[in-house]
Amino acid sequence: MLTATLRGLIAHRLRLGLTMTAVALGVAFLAGTLILTDTIKLAFDQLFGKVSSGVDSVVREKSAYDQSVGVALERPPITAAVLPAVQAVPGVAVAEGRVSGYALLTDTHGRAVTAAGGAPTQGYSLPQDQELRGDVHLRTGRAPTSATDVAIDATSAEKHDIPLGSTIRVLFRDSTREFTVVGTIGYGGEKDLGGTTAAYFDIATAQKVLGTAGKYDEIDVRAVDGVSADTLSKRLDATLPSGAEAVTGSQVAKESSDSIKKQFKFLNVMFGIFAGIALFVGSFIIWNTFTMTVTQRSREIALLRAVGATRGQVLRSLLGEAALLGVVASAIGIGAGVVVAMGLKLLMDAIGFSLPSTSLQLHARTVWLSLLVGTLVTVVAAIVPSRRATRVAPVEALRDAAPTGVRSTRRRAVIGAVMCAVAVAAVLSGLYGGSGGNIVLLGLLLAVVGFITMAPAVVRPLAGVMRRPLLLRGLPGELAHDNAVRNPRRTASTASALMIGLTLVISMGVFAASLKASFGTILSTSTSADLYIASSSTQAEGFSPQVTRVVAAVPGVAVASATSFGEARFAGSSTTYSSVDPTTVDRVLDLQTTSGSASALGDDGVLVHTSVAKSHHWSVGSRVPVEFASTGKRALMVRGIFDDKSYLNANYIISLATQDATSKDRLDSAALVKLESGVSQSEAKAAIATALAQHPDAQVLDKKGYEKQISGFVDKLLAFVSVMLLLAVLIALLGIVNTLALSVFERTRELGLLRAVGMTRKQVRSMVRWESVVISLIGALVGAFLGVLVGTSLAQSLKGDGITEVAVPVLQVLAYIVAAAIAGVVAALGPARSASRVDVLRAVVSD
Questions:
Q1: Which tens digits make up the pLDDT trace of 632-651?
Q2: What is the DSSP track for 625-677?
Q3: Could you tell me the pTM of the whole model?
């Protein structure tokens, strides 16, 4: 039986190659994801290890909990008065204060130097002691020593053509100053720290522009020879005042690395989902392939049964064939995963999402997990067809041809219809019955499964719709239709693979269109602003609060109201919040406050969304327990309850002053501008743009410009997701090639007879191509329907979170359907050529 298994694989090289390709592509995505994420993790470990390699111990204030700010954890500053006491501790060789904060570089033409992918734009103090710097070293020039000196990261210097000796402006939260570039900084072998931009100053200057006079963010300590980092940290900890702590430099590096990796954890989840989709689509091809080959090999299997093979042996033989195919394909996929990892890295760079790099990491975990998943998917997909093969009776060996009977699809149609009905009920319950978004997602998933189940029953009706146009193609078109509906199960399973891919692509397109349409509606209904101040780049963290003050001073501007955001723990749960200016927000933003007022926020108040207030039984005057990472626990009083969170998209709103008291590096995320009566919008926009000439981190936009900026960002994300999902579509097209190739082999005698009675090679090729188009269009039409259903349902389920409009990009959906038909023609080229070359005499002769 083992010999029969191996010979069965070798004898069907085309089937073997196409099926292995489908499995290998899915495994390649999985392996590539694991390789890329492992590489990113190591890169961050190496980067932060290099930065902290010269520091044995760090003295700092304790934080309430770990919360990332840029590439560090947010915590309160430590008083400079602690430094002399630290320097006096036995075992301390050198101790220096360190400061960091927001600093945006500009080039020699005054343009903002923004970091890729939204990475922080940071400023730091450069230690005087070279050993304390670790692997943060000068690549060119010298260290900053005066109030006018700055050293910048090598990447910014090279990409933006900033030579040594240049005079540039650096923007801080509350000021803008000119500096002379005296050096460029590297990090070991890297030219930047994980995609961030960096400006380095001497400690006195850094305290003035980045921090607070008389305070440091931390104190870095180097031990004398012979004293370990642990020993030194314990000595320091024993002498520090309450609220301060001493930890080892390696611990700080690990904390920073873990914090950044936690922020990138979504990559693992996102890429893992795409890999799962690719493997799921590939499983349809495997199932279809084994189903067809079992039918085609019925005589072979019957002969095995006739000479004594048991059902168990036949089952084990076919599953062994699937397992062997899965192992080999997975091994190929692992090799291809290295290429996929590099491609994913390039794709992330292309959309502006910069990631640190190091040598690609192929761990043993990646190898065995990829082999296991790929093999399991292949074997599981082959179980049902293999079990069906065990039912082949020995008498089948006497048949002249393989049986072509097709079982009724009525039961599957009923089951699928019931599942779809339950899915519709679940979606409606989630959307309008208050059951929640999770019920909507489960309902949509059940709907997709239901359509897959009942797909064979809809093949004939959908193909019937296409029959009339196909008749215009003459006999090849009519035969193409008949071939497509001859075996509805086979056609349905082949089309289902394409259906899933297009469902996901189109649903994302609908969701993105709804998001863009909603933003325009929100600006019209929720705000009364005439102009908007936004970051110069959608990837930037925000802009300096001084920008809003500059805009407010422009003649003709009645009010400029800034908004910002942050993260804290409200009532024990970590969540984001928005912050506003209580004195101006009501003039530009309609929060639909049902009780209380935003103007009453002060520095100890909070506005709470209606849904949250109801769940916690809060009303105006209630106390809300809040915990900020840098300042710890406090209670904020509910000053108002609001209904409309479409613009700010937060359940909690505090004042800018409250956020400033808890975060030293707060930036404005946007500002809404209202003009005085009678002031021309175009003239005011020009005046504001002139005023912002010295602030390249921000720009002024009208309503259309603001919508365009957000739409461009959404389109970029949609393009990224679509590229990821195209792999599933590619695998689906391979499935069509596979099905047609096997179908041609199965119909060799039929094709030979058609040729014998006068059908030309051109007509045979046309017949196979139109059959492929029918299969592709069935998958595309059902995929388009489900995609619109899923996309609109998702948009509707998020109505309370800012999605106010549901939009369907009709032209885009039609383009996908046309593209599917064209792809069907391309997929059929090889099988059609093979069909046209069938030997007429051999086809009509019985074995």
A1: 888 999 999 999 888 888 99
A2: EEEETTTEEEEEEEEEEES--TTT--SEEEEHHHHHHH-TT--B-EEEEEEPT
A3: 0.78
